[in-house]
Design goal:
- A hairpin with a 6-residue loop joins strand 7 and strand 8.
- The chain has two domains: 20-49 and 142-201, Sandwich (Immunoglobulin-like), CATH 2.60.40; 51-138, Immunoglobulin-like (Sandwich), CATH 2.60.40.420.
- The N and C termini lie far apart (67 Å).
- Strands 5-11-10-7-8 form a five-stranded mixed sheet, with no helix packed on it. A four-stranded antiparallel sheet has the order 12-2-14-15, with no helix packed on it.
- The chain has one helix at 2-17, and strands at residues 20-27, 38-43, 55-59, 64-65, 68-72, 77-81, 87-91, 98-102, 107-110, 117-123, 130-136, 141-143, 149-154, 158-165, 175-182, 187-192.
- By secondary structure, it is mainly beta.
- 27% of the residues are buried.
């Protein structure tokens, strides 16, 4: 019994020693912390199991909530209509396109996000609704917090790339990245934007438009 315990302890210690904690700090062009930026790290060799959790993108108050989501390629997404009206959700993204109606109280689960890349979403009924989904080919991703910080624990060491993405980044730096060699020591990556980031568009209509009969 003691031998098995020591063996398990040794395996756990080896696993812990082979992990790297990466802290990513993101500042705006004016030096202010930027929250809500998608951060994902792509090691050259990934052995970690893919993420399995289903994420939910709500349609609430005629808006996408959250505005920006991240999933790993192959991970499931559930669209949930929390409004008392019909939405017609769609994406014209070339490799991850879809289109479906979702009525009051309905959920629609999609497993079609098999290609890495950004997916821009809209609603054919309410054309002011916009949302974004980022599909990445790695299980290591997070959003920066209000202090502009994202902390990721990486099990796969060696050469890796740290990536930033947000739909409101300037077209000159829509996707930012840095290459690192990850070891069992903590690593910090600093990013400062060169260009201002745009405001997230408000998902509101100036009209009292609510519903299309018989849609």
């Amino acid at each position: 019994m003691r031998l098995n315990y020591l063996l398990l302890l040794n395996i756990l210690m080896m696993h812990y020693a082979s992990a790297s904690q990466v802290t990513v700090e993101i500042l705006s062009s004016k030096g202010k912390p930027l929250g809500g930026i998608a951060v994902f790290i792509t090691p050259e060799l990934i052995t970690k199991s893919p993420r399995q959790a289903v994420i939910t993108i709500n349609q609430k108050d005629k808006a996408f909530a959250p505005y920006l989501s991240i999933i790993q390629r192959g991970q499931e997404v559930e669209f949930s209509n929390n409004d008392d009206i019909t939405h017609h959700i769609f994406s014209a993204s070339r490799q991850n396109n879809f289109s479906f109606k979702i009525r009051q109280g309905q959920n629609h689960r999609s497993v079609s996000f098999d290609q890495p890349g950004s997916v821009s979403m809209g609603c054919n009924v309410h054309d002011w609704m916009t949302g974004h989904l980022l599909v990445v080919d790695t299980p290591y991703f997070e959003f920066s917090d209000e202090n502009g910080i994202a902390v990721l624990n990486i099990d796969d060491l060696g050469e890796a790339t740290v990536n930033l993405w947000h739909p409101q980044l300037s077209s000159k730096e829509t996707s930012l990245q840095k290459s690192f060699t990850l070891s069992d020591e903590s690593t910090t990556a600093h990013f400062k934007l060169k260009h201002p980031i745009s405001e997230i568009p408000q998902q509101t209509s100036g009209d009292e438009f609510d519903f299309l009969d018989d849609y």
